[in-house]
Amino acid sequence: MDANEVISRHISMSNKGMMRPLRLIILLLLQYRVIGAWRWNPEDEHPCNIHRTMTFRQVLETFGPSGIPALFPEPVILRASDAFRNEQFRKLTEQEEIVRWFGEDFNVTLSSSNSLSENRRIVPLKQYIDETVTAKETLPDQLANESWYLFGETYSEEWSTFLKHYEIPPCYTCSDWPVALAFGIGNRGSGVQWHMHGPGFSEAIHGRKHWILYPPKERPDYEKDQSSRQWMETTYWEVVSKPLECTLHPGDLIYFPDKWHHATINLDTYTVFVSAFTTEHNLGLSDEL
Question: Where in this chain does the entry annotate a coiled-coil region (predicted)?
Fold first, then answer.
């Protein structure tokens, strides 16, 4: 129950001779709103209102062996089965294993976490994991353009070799050539503020990752340098039309449609994910849907 529902319920009860104590309760509720007592905590379990939630078997039974059709018009959550699909890759991406694979001096390019992700910073992978990912939590008041995050800048030959161990999701255009894989590691509270791009998938490998989405014609109200966690804490409860949202657990994937607005928040200390960006919007298939 949110704050509006609590206040409305207490006001309706005031007709039963409970006016004075209820006035106090309502004032306290309003005061808690102002000081931010309702906090969005990454450690909590969060709702999922994306209605098309399927297992991999259900995807194949519904759409056939080619998987999710090109330019599918709505988000889909693919829940992990008992057998972890990318178990080998999961082992390779454990903290010590990934440093051993690349070496302690291997540099990674971090991006700023704001909507444009326009700033870059280069640091050794081990330093990023030790000093940022496992040692810090990104707090709501930290500006996204000043928060650094490994995602997207993983297209070098070294990363391409590493990502060959990742099993690509089931979809109509998910062969090797139309898919660009992007690898990411984040700490608790990190994420990317609202943005949009072409369609694709994102899979949680370690840790949980929360997604919030709006369709193309429903642009959310946000500040580009505000963090996505701050948006959840300060703006989410004010929004009349709530976004679609869902948390990915390890092994889960989300299909995000073309040009949908979305933001993400990493919920656990060591959150690892892979995004697969498809090029289906260039294949002229939209008229077939």
Answer: none
